[in-house]
Amino acid sequence: MSLNMLAATMRFITRIPVPDKWADGVEFRHYGQGVRYFPVVGCVVGGLAAFVAVVASQSGGGIYVGALVYVLALAFLTGGFHLDGLADTCDGIFSARKRERMLEIMRDSRLGTHGGLALIFCILIKTFAVISLSQFPAKELFTLLLCAPVAGRAAMVLAMYKQRYARAGEGMGNIYIGQISGYQAAITLLIGALIVGLFAGTRGLIAILVTYVVVYGVASYFRRQLDGQTGDTLGASEEVGEMVFLLALLWA
Fold this sequence. Notes:
- By secondary structure, the chain is mainly alpha-helical.
- The protein contains 8 helices and no strands.
- The chain is globular and about 50 Å long.
- It starts with a helix and ends with a helix.
- The mean pLDDT is 94.
């Protein structure tokens, strides 16, 4: 059942091909139980993105191409799933409207000014952070880049635990938001920290702790604005987590 849940979680939050039979027996309403696998999924995504980035950089592309390849690989492997949430959240939150109107704007499939700016800044921040981190040897750079999606996905649980779903009715985020126990949240955060500590050592542990604090603050801000969380704010929290982690590595 555990491997089935891991496969189901991988298939749900990434675009990595996972055979249907691997997720047999896992119903959609039970996906919340797979939150502890978020850091593991992040490790797979981060490992693949870091590998192609380092290969691109070391094979002649240089640090600039390598950094861009890394950011594009992250988007490709997730289908822009979390980036979409970031854009929708920023369109709604920064519209300066009432809560109900914010939620309507977040549901609109069209990209607004604030969402577009959020995507631009997110991509730029990640790209330039990776360029700055490219001062490290290739092997160390690989481990640092691997860990960013781990930190981002582990931190997402902070936007789920003891939160409420902001919308009336059902939604994809509803299977996680407010459905995570304290034990599940603690295990997810711990697994994230263990993976990062294993690959990135003390520098990584400092960076992921900073990430947890910032994402908790961001999630609290979303809750005050929307009176809860949505699937979009979960995606936004993940993207913020990746950005903060990469930036924190520069000062850790």
